[in-house]
Structures are given as structure tokens and as C-alpha cells.
Amino acid sequence: MIPAATVRNLQKNYGAKALALAIFVSLLFLALGYKSICRGLVLGAFFSTINFVLMAQTLHKTIKSDNVKASISAFGNICFRYIFIAIPLVIAIKFARFNLAATIVGLFMVQSVILGDHLYRNFFFAGEGEKGTLNGRIR
Predict the structure, then answer these.
(1) Which residues span the membrane (predicted)?
(2) Residue pair 46/110 in contact by the 8 Å Cβ criterion
(3) Which residues fall within 8 angstroms of residue 26, CB to CB, at 6 or more apart?
């Protein structure tokens, strides 16, 4: 089992990187005059980061010895997170101030950062066998 401190460090690392990336890209769009894209990216990235933290916080609660209780708990967790992710989509659809496509891109910001981090580690540290890389070598 992964220690709670490691999980918190991963949450902070990926969440901070996702929000920083969203803010940086949003500032570029703001400088170009696309305010709705700027707002949509930040809105989506904010909810994506909160969703990631909620997922990590509730993961240990879905792991139980009883299969029926674990399945019901996992299903409820997934339903809650889908409803939570729908909030920025509804906001982007209802209000013209938010760009819907940018909000959707922002919702995938944490996943993009995680994928980018793993690809970076795989390509730049492939021969070193660094722990956590995708090349399968763990020392």
C-alpha cells in the first residue's frame, strides 16, 4: 500500500502542475484577446484538480473486504464524481462567458499532466531504470 504522504505529494505535484499549466495557457489566450477561452480553461482545470483530489481521498474507502459493499461504494463514488464533473460543463453551456471546448480541455488537464510526466520520464530517463518509469525497470 502506498503511504498517505506519498499520495498527498502526488496530489500536490500533479494538481499544482495542472493549475499552473492552465493558468499559463490561459494568460496566453487572454493576451490574444480570447477571454472566454481563458475562463473555460481555468474553470475546467480547477474542477479537474478537485476531482483528482476527491478521487484520491475516497479511494481507500472503496477498498473493503466485502465485494458487494466495495462495488456499491465504488459505483456511488463514480456517480458522484461524474455529477461533480458535469458542473463546469453546465456552467459553460449556460453562460457565454465560458468557452465549452476550452472547459472540456481544462477538465483533462490533470490527466494530460500525468501523461506528460510519465512520457517525459520514459523518454529522458529510459536507460537509467528510474523507479516509476514506464519501461518496466525498477531497481
Answers:
(1) 14-34, 41-60, 72-93, 100-120
(2) no
(3) 37, 38, 39, 41, 42
Over the stretch 102-121, which tens digit does the pLDDT of each residue have? 999 999 999 999 999 989 88
Name the grid cell of 5.
Answer: 504522504
Cα atoms in the Cβ-side hemisphere of radius 13 Å centred on 126: 6
**Model pTM?**
0.79
DSSP notation for the chain: ---HHHHHHHHHHHHHHHHHHHHHHHHHHHHTT-HHHHHHHHHHHHHHHHHHHHHHHHHHHH--SSHHHHHHHHHHHHHHHHHHHHHHHHHHHH-TTS-HHHHHHHHTHHHHHHHHHHHHHHHHSTTTT-TT-TT----
